[in-house]
Amino acid sequence: MRLSRYFLPTLKDTPREAEVVSHRLMLRAGMIQQASAGIYSWLPLGFRVMKKIEQIVREEQDAAGWNEMLMPTIQPADLWRESGRYDDYGKEMLRITDRHDRDMLYGPTNEELITDIVRTHVRSYRNLPGRLYHIQWKFRDEVRPRFGVMRGREFLMKDAYSIDLDFDTARAAYNRQFVAYLKTFDRMGLKAIPMAADSGPIGGDMSHEFIILADTGESEVFCDRDFLDFDVGGSVPDYEDTGAVEGVVDYFTKLYARTDEKHDEATFEAEVPDIRRYRGRGIEVGHIFYFGTKYSEPLGARVTGPDGKEAVVHMGSYGIGVSRLVAGIIEASHDDAGIIWPESVAPFKIGLVNLKVGDADCDRVTEDLYAKFLQAGIEVLMDDSAERPGAKLAGMDLIGLPWQVVVGPRGVANGVVEVKNRKSGEREEMAAEAALAKLAA
Ligand code: 5CA
């Protein structure tokens, strides 16, 4: 992509309304624009990152055995009257009346809709387990939308649902999602700690939040410091091996890690030695729930079991805050100069900078590299603008692409370009061909 043809409205000044670093950087890097409180447009750069995150989430849901689908954003109120949540949800629910005076709502989550699909189509235990998910916009009229897309009113969520005949298979589904979450966040370069959590308006008695530690996080958390340097790396087993999957969950749940609603000071002090007690704040990027028959019972989602008797299905739901993750990753990975994208979610892998546009040699070397990067299938953003060199380099640092390749007149005269790693700050001069070989690898 040529910067001259890319809509990237970066800001020089720090926007005053933004309280946390991720919000400031997202505005400065031209990623989002507020439409109204807690509601944002995703500009091209922000949109690309969100799509990368969405794709990682999708691949890991597919790998764990879930089927992708899409449910609507607007739902009929009657379904929510059946579950009893139409009144319970209170002011957070955006209620809408259509032209026929029917009560509708903009979905804050989808337990009712999925249960309706299940009760319509699943009649026998032979059609179980059900493993469904979608990635769809949600609306919650939050009392305090803040920190940009971190706590928005409209936000993108991956919500998955499991439908099972009994507790044991439902538990196995929960475990698979638990492991899929470890893998998903690890791929994004995040350390997301699974913490025992309250289930709130979703309900149920088994629930974990996945939390990335950050001083600006909204959740108060307590955990064993051993979690701070855990490595998911090799711990993801074959999903078909139920025992091994359970083993991973046991491993990660045996150490103390709880959000404030579940925190118990006496247990914390008894289980965790003083020097390993971590008290801090964190950002909830995912939340999983087992709620059994909370929705299937009132909505009548029943199947015939192997014994010929009717049974109410057991369900769970599994959320990931896709749009929130864009901000969460920035909170976890930035410096004074700007964002530092992990390669897996970076909007482009390389920022190619022509320091002297109009100089025949610089233009030739840059254009040639650009064409070759594209040919190699590498995502590259080429700064072909007439800006000052200093502003170009600062702009590249701000938007945080993992690699910068800088072409300037002095280097070109010596047959080299400069390759900079955004994260380590390391710079290396090498021939253009060598830069191509290094970055295409
Ligand atoms: N139905 C369940 C799971 S599918 C559910 O709604 N869970 S949730 O309420 O915990 O939301 C799932 C995830 O969405 C959260 O972990 C969080 O990452 C994200 N999320 C929730 N509220 C917001 C918000 N206001 N803005 C941005 N992301 C949010």
CATH class of the largest domain: Alpha Beta
Major beta sheet, specifics? 9 strands, mixed
| CATH domain fold name of the largest domain | BirA Bifunctional Protein, domain 2
Name of the CATH homologous superfamily of the largest domain: Bira Bifunctional Protein, Domain 2
Q: What portion of the residues fall into strands of 2 or more residues?
A: 25-35%
Domains (count): 2
Structural category: alpha+beta
Tally of separate helices = 14
Uncertain ranges: none
Q: What overall geometry do the principal axes of the alpha carbons give?
A: globular
Termini separation comes to 20 Å
What integer is the average pLDDT?
96
Bound molecules: 5'-O-(N-(L-cysteinyl)-sulfamoyl)adenosine
In which range does the helix fraction lie?
25-40%
User: Tally of extended strands?
Assistant: 23
Radius of gyration: 24 Å
